[in-house]
Amino acid sequence: MLSWVSVQATTGSIIADLPTLRVDGALKRTIGRHEAQTAVLPLDGAPSNWRTATRKKAVFLVALSEPLENEPRGLPVWGGMVTERTTSHKEGVSLSMVTAEDYLNDRYVMNETYTGIGQNEIVEDLIEKYIIPDGIPVRVVKLPGANPARDRTYLDADDKTVYSILEELSGVLGGPEWTIGWEWVDERALGLVLYVGARLGTPAPAGLGPASWFHLPGNVSDCELVEGYRRGEGANDVMAVSSGSADARPQSTHHQSAEDGRPKIELRWTPSTSITNTDTLEQHAGRALEGLQGGTVALSITANRAESEPFQLGDDVGFDLTSWAWPNKITGTARAIGIEWTDTTITPVLDVTGIEGIY
Fold this sequence. Notes:
Elements: E1 3-8, E2 14-17, E3 22-23, E4 27-30, E5 36-41, H1 50-53, E6 59-64, E7 76-88, E8 92-99, E9 112-118, H2 119-130, E10 138-142, E11 149-154, H3 162-170, E12 177-186, E13 189-197, E14 213-216, E15 220-228, E16 237-240, E17 255-256, E18 266-269, H4 278-292, E19 296-304, E20 316-321, E21 330-341, E22 345-351
Parallel strand pairs: 10-13, 14-20, 16-18
Antiparallel strand pairs: 1-2, 1-6, 3-5, 4-21, 5-8, 6-7, 7-8, 9-11, 12-13, 15-19, 16-17, 19-22, 20-21, 21-22
């Protein structure tokens, strides 16, 4: 069973244990994105300082896994800042929460210019200047791997948040992946960690399979393959544009995929209104075409948590699924671009684009 603690947003110090807190559905984390959740804290059994422990925009509620051997507390697997609290004499305290990535939307960037600076260092500098001061304590971990140099100029007048800048930076070819996790600082405090790099998680070793596997029949209780090509989910002709006037608008060329039996599906979008360099727009369009040309393909697997090997966000995991829907089975290795937890299950949300048998 997952257990819950409340921690002070500005320090990470534990305010209270919340043994009766129950969430509505699964806890979710996704690379480079914030995720929301709702919960209920029954007043019967709540700690005496429950008001302080659920104070909106002042606390994070953090879920801990089962304690490890010789460890007094479990590992933090999810945390959400309280954004709304509704108290009822019938329901107790209803809470809305959102993961720490969303706090990056609460902080605006002033005038900054980066010339030939590694993208990981740009992210680190933004966090140190605009998130930590008067905000939340975040330790930045720069992962090994490619770290392309970027040129970026941000203006106070553009009203860009740290989140919007990281979103734009991640949207170019070779852009960084990032997420915010949790760690124990000491026995009475938890800390936030922002991981940034060319790739989150661990690929399967060459010639070997991944450490974590999901089997049906086996530890998998449910699975679902979702393939989409709705507007915004798929396109084979992509153009990135920025703000401008008349024929002076900066824009990329058309990035087109090879003929695959679909008619032309065009998409034009603005990755950021402040981009003036067309080379940056070309990188955005190229990155977008990679993800859009085949539409969306996501494999969601729900498995028994106790029967599954642990894995982290971004890790490669293996799957071998046979059912009436897939009599010839679906098997392969894919990245966990998202993870969902409940008290008894774990769900890796997998990027299966390009895996044989899935198209």
